[in-house]
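Justification of resources, computational component.

The compute hours requested in this renewal are based largely on the per-chain cost of generating structure records like the one below. Each record pairs the submitted sequence with a full structure-token output. That output is archived, and it is also reused by downstream analysis tasks.
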Amino acid sequence: MQTRFPRHWRWITFTALAAAPTRGTVTNVLRDEQLLIAHPGQPQPTTIRLAGIRPFPDQTPALEQWLNEHLVAQPVEVVITLARTGDRAAPAAHLYLRDGTLVNERLIESGIARTEPHTAGRLRHWLRTLENRARFKRVGLWALTPDPTHTPPPAADQ
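The structure output for this chain reads:
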């Protein structure tokens, strides 16, 4: 499987020093944006957290359902990097499907997840751009949220 990075791949180098991609298979969705990945030749699967995303409030089941439907038993390439989580840095992953699709991007542009506020510079900018497009198009869970820019017409007095 050859890794084909998206057109905005450069943000990986600015996020942190990323490890070389490793191949694996998603075996289970644990919770929120955490996955269990089995790597060939390793006896124990690895737990990863997807970098740059977070679930909508009260919509974790929708994210977990999407991950289960689209990722379980799928071969993936994993690029581990450091992601800021609050006041600390923790390992996080950029997950690529066989066709080169970056799962982190797909979740946000599909309106399934939001951008993590503590994401590093260029990655945050790119994911926020995708999030704003999804919000504008009312895609996914954005279709369920009220539009904050919409002002309802005044009620007619009777």
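Strands lie at 22-31, 34-38, 46-49, 53-55, 75-85, 88-97, 113-115. The chain has four helices and seven strands.
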